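Lab notes, practical 5.
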Amino acid sequence: MPLLALVLLAGCQHKGSPKGILSEPQMVDFLTDAYLLEGFYAIETQYRYDVVTPDVLRKYDSILSVHGITREEVERSLDYYTQHLDRYQVIQDSVLNRLENTSKSAIPLTGE
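Output from the prediction step:
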C-alpha cells in the first residue's frame, strides 16, 4: 500500500509546479511578453538574439516587474520546464496561440 501512495503522490505533483517554479499560466504570460519584446527589437533595431544589450535588459526588467517575478524565478522555471518537455510544449503552444490571436486582432500596418 505505501508504494501505491507514492505513485499517486508523484502523479499528483505533476499537475502543479514545485515550489519556486512559475506556474504554467505565469510562464505563458511572461513568455508571451518576452517574445513580443524580442519581436519588436528584431524589427525596429539591429537586435541580435545572441547579444543582450543594456536596453534589452531594462525592458526585460520591466516585464519581470509587471509580472511580479524575478530573473532567478524565470531561470529556475525554464530549467524545470525544459526537463519536463511535455509541460513545456503545452506552455509553448499556449504562447504561440496568444501571439497568433494578438497578430490577428492587430491593425494592419501595410494597408492589407
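Observations recorded by the TA: Residues 33 and 63 are 7 Å apart (CA to CA). The first helix runs from residue 2 to 13.
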